[in-house]
Design brief:
CATH architecture: Alpha-Beta Barrel
Number of helices: 10
Helix content: 40-55%
CATH topology: TIM Barrel
Largest sheet: 8 strands, parallel, barrel
Number of strands: 10
Amino acid sequence: MTIGLGTYAFFWQWQTTASQPLSLTDMIDKTAGWDVTLFQICDYPPIETYDDAALGALRRHAADRDVQLELGTRGVQPEHLTRYLHIAEALDVTLVRSMINSAAHRPTIEEAIELLRQVIPDYEAAGVTVALETYEQIPVRDLVRIVETVGSPALGICLDPGNCVAALETPTSTIERAAPYVRNLHVKDFAFSRKDGWVGFTFAGAPLGEGLLDYDFMIDTVRPDQRGINQIIEHWLPWQGDSATTIQTEDQWTLHNLHYLRSQTA
């Protein structure tokens, strides 16, 4: 089990709202600078424009910084996942996180099963795992059914308990249902706060240990250390009013969460 960072730990820093947006190599450098040896390139569309030479250069840069890479995308269309398998092999990646739905395609559960059956054997042959993320658009029971029906060791679940709250699935039930199939963990804390005027709530991120995530329960249930499951730090950090403050807070949360996870695994 390895603690890693993902692009969602640098969300505000690579967006165009930043005065000097970070590149992938910048994010890898910051990751290495914090003595972290794993970085997940997740929901970062520019990676799809990289040719083989650019992918090779990125792989060498990460290796030079002693950082292993993972990938993340959205969608289960065979042509899309085949493209990501090529990227994974070029980057020496063994895990690709994905989601059932993408911006352009929302398959039924049965359609998703058939689409995955077309491409998962190629992932299995390459030694690369697809981990489908838990989130509110797909009930966890359906995600589990997809994984069970496809029935490949190259297909599992990326567990992120906070994502399912919007569908009124509790973090505890999400963890319990997904646990046997988890291949990757997205670790972020979350909390509700009253909106101004006390009309409704905001559901947003929080530093680890300060929100509603029962981290101990998740770890006791999933047992990532015994199963070789990596933990990727992410944030749901709201905009803090200006770019500089937001980026500073983002880094503060990352350092806090790294300390929290390291103290739990020491």
